[in-house]
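Lecture notes, unit on protein representations.

Consider one protein chain, 319 amino acids long.
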Amino acid sequence: MALASDRFPMPAFPDGWFQVAYGHEVALGAVVSLHYFGEQLICYRDSAGEAIVLDAYCPHQGADIGVGGTVEGDCVKCPFHGWLFDRTGANVEIPYARSVNRTARLRRWPTVERAGCIFVWHSAAGGAPAWELPLVPEFDDPGFVWHVPDGARWQIRTHVQEIYENTVEAAHFATVHGVPNFGTVEVTRDGPMFRAVSEVSFATPRGPVPGAVDSELWGLGVDIVRHRGLGASCTLLTATPVDGEYVDARYTFLVQRDRGGGAGGMSRLGVGMMKDFMKQITQDIPIWENKIYRRKPQLASGEGAVTNFRDWAQQSYPA
């Protein structure tokens, strides 16, 4: 299998917001070790419960604070020499010295929580986020159940852009996933947001039901997917570069609640859609892990949305 870095000419780590954890994975008092963008990171919560993401390696002697580090109030403590670093990454205490080291800092990553997920802003040039992630209204709607099934996470040897290009690849739904009757793809672009609405006919026991798949991309890290025609649903597909070779992909589902009190509170339709989403991504993985990137693909008539998507994606790779 050819390396992803040889198959895709794009920079491995685009600018944008990327998921690094779920909120429930970072408990108060815990230091969670992370590895993304080829970097070793840590995540913990300050005394107010806000998620903080910092570089993991201590600037003193290089210990990984994610291995044996502890939380003290708003600070993390290095397990090697006990140096304390506050939520901004500044050194605020050296237990055996009279003064702190003002040049010793851990980089702090801009961090937000959305829909039960923890995201960080990655930028090759550094600096503040260029745009903000939207809220996901379904997360606060009592009509939906937040759910992450077992197995809804994959380490894929590909590039994040390849995963999200599927939003405009309507034809592959028939050949790869066996979904017939995909129609036109309508594209809308607004800065970091790219929306692709694909007409589709859903197969149901009552026969085909016309509808659409609405994919709302925010940069190359988050896709908020909603269906039209089969009831309300909302799915987050997040993809985060790990090391230039692998991408960490996750599904987070907001499933319409079953008013009859079904298993887990979720509607049967919602449970079925979750299973279908997870089946489809496993069908895509062998293709992503073995294909190459065609700079000038020989497209068929009606596939112009692919070019539109690639043109929009370029803003995530600033010169």
